[in-house]
User: What shape does this take?
Amino acid sequence: MPQDREIAIEVQNAVKHYGTFTALKTISLSIRDNEFFTLLGPSGCGKTTLLRMIAGFEDVTEGAIYLYGDEIDRLPPHKRPVNTVFQNYALFPHMTVLENVGFGLEMLGKSKAEARARAGEVLEMVRLSQFAARKPSQLSGGQQQRVALARALAPRPKVLLLDEPLSALDLKLRKAMQVELKHLQRETGITFIFVTHDQAEALTMSDRIAVMSEGELQQLGEAREIYERPRNVFVADFIGDTNLMEVTVDKVEGSRAQCHLGGGHKLTCDSVDGIGPGAKVHMSLRPERLFLSADPVEAESLSGTVRETIYIGTDIATVVELEDGPQFTIRSSNSTRGNARVFEAGTPVAVNMEMGAARLLVD
Amino acid sequence: MAKPYDLRRYPGFFGITILCLVILYAPLAVVAVYSFNASPSITIWEGFSLRWYVDVFTGPESAKFKEAAWNSFIIAIAAATTATVIATLAATAVLRTGKFRLRTLSVGLISLPLMVPEIVTAVATLIFFNAIAFERGLMTILFAHITFCIPFAYMPISARMQGIEASYEQAAMDLYATKRQAFMRILMPLMMPGIVSGFILAFIISLDDFIITNFVKGAGVETLPTAIFGAVKQGIKPNIMAISTLLLAVSILMVAFSWLIGRRNQVEGR
Amino acid sequence: MAGGAAPGGSVQSKTYREARGWLLLPAWVTLGILTLAPLTIMLVYSFLTKEFRGGVIWEFSLDAYDQFFFDRGLFGDEPPRIEWTYIGIFWRSIWQAGAATILSLLIGFPTACFIATRPEKERTLWVFLVTIPYWVNLLIRTVSMKFLLRDEGPLSDGLIAIGAISEPLGIVNTNLAVQLGLFYSYLPFMVLPIYAAVERYNFALSEAAADLYAPRWTVLRRILLPVVKPGIVAGCILVFVPSLGSFLAPDLLGGAKNFMIGSLIEEQFKGNAGNWPFGAAASMILLTLVLILLIASARQSQKRDG
Assistant: This one.
């Protein structure tokens, strides 16, 4: 049994069945004290189920969950010192903002005065003091969001759980709240477990990310690691944009692997353990790590024809079709200083890549 | 495996629900069972028999009950039909003619019979017929029934009409239908499920009424409820239980019918 | 009964605007002649002089109200004292209707909650089960209740047979029998609005409360009950109002001792012993009570929504 004070939440071999449906297949992970941890995945991947198991709203079919070394998976929600920010906030409509925020403290047996004082303090922190006497229905979406946050923070939980809390906000507000959440986490020093299906949001906010799919943990690591060294096809595809190609491995030398595309183009890729010569695997090429030129600039340059140019604003994306079929998307920054030469559709071009841009993946 | 902590379930609520259903059905079930009793006593069970059903149709009181049943039926049909027509027109006015000053007042007037206690309506109607010297009889019963049936017919009809978007009629008129044609060919068929449930509701409410009927009926005119009440006043007899069971069966058939219509309604809505 | 025919949300169309008058005319004529006019005439009758064989003499008089509230002795020449008989009957009616309402709430709320938390497909069936008895003739339901409850009835005999009681039940002609009868008459009116409210209730609120350390029954008391209160209030009104003026349950199950408003009024119009102005006055007082209750609850719900 883990006794480490550095581990806030320890999930050991947790399994969740709903009747014959398996929502979680044996998940184990540790969430460190004072980190911003994100559970990321498409809907139905089991991330919310895992969060609700930690909160106490779903029972654990098998396995165990520890909070700072204490097993909590048999406790009802009201006996777990963790608090949740709900997806649609779940603010009590019949209570004022102050009553909402003070509710948890009141339930913990604090005096009315003490609960009010602390609630006022937390409202100050989220800059909503002037709305203390209002009802939730009289607030905007963003304000309701901050009340929900204040309410969950007021009882000083050991871990704060956030269930897609920003999904109901518009883009601008969402960006602002991302920054604010990150600040609040630093300020309070509370461990945040954040659930989202938005990979960009996860990359922006998290110390570490657990990518989940179909009830399984796909990869766990820091944001940069997840983006740059995806372990498998799902992670590479789900996080950011990428070009996925099938390649055949010819030779492996240390961390380098010589491969060729279907049409015979030769490439050098970053290798992964467990992939040997002769294997047919997928390779990921991030579009921003490719660049175009009129003529080949290196031995491994691939030649093709421009099919389409898409104006994105910050970037320009160019779709290139190689001679024998496969298509690449290349992104270049939309600035006059860079190499942003725009190629017309139909122009023959060469696709070049940075060192280590091509990465082999397990399926 | 631990029992999940489900905040939707409260211990004991299932038990109370079962208790609730037992209370609701026990009296009806007991009466239905005893209506098949062979004994002329209502207390002792002497085996299964249909004699009281035979008695209802051929016994000494059968003529009285037959006439009362016929009156009830005629009044219910006439009252429900009239109330449904009035309610359909009123719902069209309230929901399909824009905003107008008397709108809220009209809706208030239509729901008035629901808000006034039945006994008060009964007294008021009796006094009214007396004041205008209108002789009490089948007609007074019918008029009173039409009145309190209107809100019951109105509820499902207006609920249904609210669910029908104005674009259907607009499309019809865009395709060269006149307003009358749009009403008859588009709105009416779409509203039919609401109209049918309104009619059934009004029919049952009319059949059910005792208090108001008892006040406004003329001497010697009986409907089934007043006839049964008169008989029960002299003690519950087995033939009353047989009549009750027959009425129970009619009610259940009607509800089942309106439920089927409601379900078809829902399926269409999806 | 209250609520019923709501005006309904937005006005969607003006298609039949020109025909509005003709569409509304039948409803206005019918309800105007057969509801508004009778209520007005009833008000007038309550201020007339009684005629001894039923009916009225067209002479203004406050006798009906005076008789209701004051006792002036057998010959009407003593100084007025408060007459408690009729106030007492009203008071008992309010008490009986209140008890029936509470009984309905105690059974109806858990039932409504249970039904509303069933899987969606099952819910219609449960609602159906609760409402079927309502479609059975009220008279027949009340008679059935009497048949079940009477001494020598199946319930009493059954309880004696299993040794739960030694004497016959003796429940008919008591307050309890009337309350049971009223409860039985109007229970679905309690269940349906509460069911509708709980079905709309967002159970994430319960989870949020549990997450904030509220135990299960505290969640019920502090969150669920206050949030579904409009449904509960509607249910209580829908049971209380018809119970207050009911006639069948007190008449068949209560007997002479447990006289309620409905029977008091009915008596004034039966045979030759009646007193029409007095009956009209009692009806007016009942109507006033009910309207005050309805207006107060409408105000309350307006305040809540605004």
Q: What stands out?
A: The CA atoms of residues 194 and 329 of chain A lie 32 Å apart.
